[in-house]
Structure formats: C-alpha cells, structure tokens
Amino acid sequence: MRQVPIRRPKDLGLAVAEARRLRRLSQAELADTAGIDRTYLVRLEAGLSTLLVERVLRLLRRLGAELIVVLPPEEPDPGERTS
C-alpha cells in the first residue's frame, strides 16, 4: 500500500481519485455509495478547495501534523482470470 501525504486540496483530490480508480469505481458509483453529490466529488478530485478541507489542512500545519492517505491495493480486474 502506498502512503500519500496531503498538504493541499489538490493532493487530497488526487488521492481520492486514485483510490477510486484502484477500486474500479466510477465517480457516480462512489458518490452514490458515499451519499454525496457527484458534482461535489468531481470538485474534490479536481483539487478545488472547499472551506472545510482548507481549514483542516491549515489546522494540521499549525500543529506540525500532517494528513496521510493510505491507498488501498488495486482491485483485480473482473475480466482477468486468476490461477
């Protein structure tokens, strides 16, 4: 598993998008299962800042702490055969 430090909203967006792809989910599928609007997910993955994300990251920086996202292992392709 890969660890990704989150220092800015763009980092968080890239980590969410990569984790979603590793789980082979579309944005619509993830948004639906998470109970959020797909447009919010699109904005988050694009790294567009939300007030909450900015505030959390600012607080962590002030405390000398950092946010780390641990990405999941890649899901096997359902079309691939396993031995």
List its traits.
434 Repressor (Amino-terminal Domain); two-stranded antiparallel sheet; mainly alpha; 83 residues; flat; single chain; 4 helices; 2 strands
Give the total of beta strands: 2
Q: What does the largest sheet look like?
A: 2 strands, antiparallel
Distance between the termini: 23 Å
Strand order of the largest sheet: 1-2
By secondary-structure content and strand pairing, the structural class works out as: mainly alpha
Which CATH top level class fits? Mainly Alpha
**Name given to the CATH architecture:** Orthogonal Bundle
Order of helices and strands: EHHHHE
Oligomer: single chain
Question: Which whole number gives the mean pLDDT?
Answer: 91
Question: Percent of residues in beta strands?
Answer: 5-15%
Structurally, the number of domains stands at 1
| CATH T-level fold name | 434 Repressor (Amino-terminal Domain)
Q: Level of helix content?
A: 40-55%
Radius of gyration: 15 Å
List low-pLDDT spans.
none
Shape: flat
Q: Give the full name of the CATH homologous superfamily.
A: lambda repressor-like DNA-binding domains
- Summed up, the helix count is 4
Describe the 3D structure.
Helix 2 (27-34) crosses helix 3 (38-45). The protein has helices at 9-22, 27-34, 38-45, 51-63; strands spanning 3-6, 67-70. The chain is mainly alpha-helical. Helices cover 52% and strands 10% of the residues. The chain has one domain (3-70): lambda repressor-like DNA-binding domains (434 Repressor (Amino-terminal Domain)). The mean pLDDT is 91. The chain has a two-stranded antiparallel ribbon with strand order 1-2. It is built from 4 helices and 2 strands, in the order βααααβ.
